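Example protein as discussed:

>
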Amino acid sequence: MAKLYFHYSTMNAGKSTILLQAAHNYRERGMEPYLLTAQLDHRAGAGRIASRIGIGETADTFAPGDDLFQRLTARLSASACACVFLDEAQFLEPDQVWQLARAVDDLALPVMCYGLRVDFQGRLFPGSAALLALADEMREVRTICHCGKKATMVVRKDGDGRVVTDGAQVQIGGNETYVSLCRRHWREAVAGSDPSLRSRCNG
């Protein structure tokens, strides 16, 4: 039975590596996957899903306003497709998550989404919030804080390495921009860089 999956984590947990391995496993069994990634994230090149360990694959891209149900319907009409793997799922619009859910329900097409759960301010991305509400199954991809505890949050840093507490929710970056932390160390980092947030973080 087809399902909508949401694999979520913080930055640098290996989501793309897991996605690429899963897609490879499908091909080994003679089943063709369909790969999608966000158009706005081109750190690895336009239309490419890449892992920090050096593996990557080309993929189609999605952008705000795209009708993903129509896209997947057309893809199935063109050739067989066993499963959809979608990277950078936090950049989906809520309507697009509903479109993916419709593809699961009406086209019997499994859809596996991989993305971040929260932003650098500790708030859910709209796409991630919709996936948390609609996904049939959710799986956490874990990574660790520098203290050894599970990392569930992420801080954004500027070019001088200082923690940033305001700005646009979406800013593309990698290890030079984002650091994954446990909640305690995220609270300390955020409160230490912006005194106005101390009451929120420390009660």
User: Anything to note?
Assistant: Residues 15-28 form the longest helix (14 residues). The mean pLDDT is 87.
